Amino acid sequence: MDATTVTRAPVLILLGPPGAGKGTQARKLEDKYGLVQLSTGDLLRAAVAQGTEAGKQAKAVMEAGELVSDEIVIAILRDRIAEADCAQGVILDGFPRTTVQAEALDALLAESGQKINAAISLEVDDAAMVDRISGRYTCAGCGEGYHDTFKTPKQSGVCDHCGGTEMKRRADDKAETVASRLEAYHAQTAPLIGYYDSKGALSRIDAMGKIEEIAAGLGAIVEKATG
Ligand code: AP5
């Protein structure tokens, strides 16, 4: 069996720098294929909001645009992926982000005889990412993502997904923090493209186009990897 063999519920990874559209596309794949989006960024922000020990340790690191320790992130991911809903298949958004995390994921999946189906690299220009991130906001109710220019709700201030009217912006979405986040991506996460390529599990997609066009391309990759 090669690295893309499906043995159980699908496990897909979205790789890409901040602003590449991982969260936007993961939510679409979730809706279309009934997979569960697992975003370690969302899990960490929830831990910060709840004031857990992990959240207290993560808060300043996230605000500086650096990576939270492998130990904390792996523990959070391990707990979440063990929950019942994940048995239907998962899309990992923002995890793994280091080689240590990628190896930990391989080991975790191997415990249940699983492997990842595909790691999909969203390929973008760094220069466009600052615009994407600085215009981003999300629905406080359901987490649906929007953008001041590129993705506005049908009715201004009202979430298309849940009808909520409270929108929020992230503390780390400032231009200076985005630069640190991009630096962390290139130094610590981009090497994972080679890691998954060497396992025969990598697909690449041009993520500079329109959201719906990228979603269609991703859907084709997902169907091939899980069909
Ligand atoms: P995380 O929450 O994972 O943030 P990120 O990787 O920096 O990614 P983003 O959420 O900023 O971008 P995205 O690719 O999801 O883009 P989106 O779809 O929103 O991590 C935050 C922090 O948590 C990290 O810095 C780190 O400290 C910590 N952390 C998390 N995981 C970790 C881990 N595994 N290890 C260690 N630390 C970890 O799109 C962006 C905007 O662009 C949106 O407004 C969207 O509407 C718009 N948009 C999307 N696609 C397009 C398009 N094609 N054209 C135009 N606009 C678009």
TrEMBL record:
It comes from the Bacteria. The keyword Ligase does not apply. Keywords: ATP-binding, Cytoplasm, Kinase, Metal-binding, Nucleotide biosynthesis, Nucleotide-binding, Transferase, Zinc. ATP binds at G19, A20, G21, K22, G23, T24, R136, G209. Pathway: Purine metabolism; AMP biosynthesis via salvage pathway; AMP from ADP: step 1/1. Zn(2+) binds at C139, C142, C159, C162. Residues 39-68 are annotated as: NMP. Residues 136-172 form the Adenylate kinase active site lid domain. The keyword 4Fe-4S does not apply. It catalyses: AMP + ATP = 2 ADP. One of its GO terms (biological process) is AMP salvage. Its EC number is 2.7.4.3. It holds the Pfam family ADK_lid. Catalyzes the reversible transfer of the terminal phosphate group between ATP and AMP. Plays an important role in cellular energy homeostasis and in adenine nucleotide metabolism. NCBIfam families: adk, PRK00279.1-2, PRK00279.1-3, PRK14527.1, PRK14532.1. Consists of three domains, a large central CORE domain and two small peripheral domains, NMPbind and LID, which undergo movements during catalysis. The LID domain closes over the site of phosphoryl transfer upon ATP binding. Assembling and dissambling the active center during each catalytic cycle provides an effective means to prevent ATP hydrolysis. Some bacteria have evolved a zinc-coordinating structure that stabilizes the LID domain. This is Adenylate kinase. It comes from Alloyangia pacifica. The gene is adk.
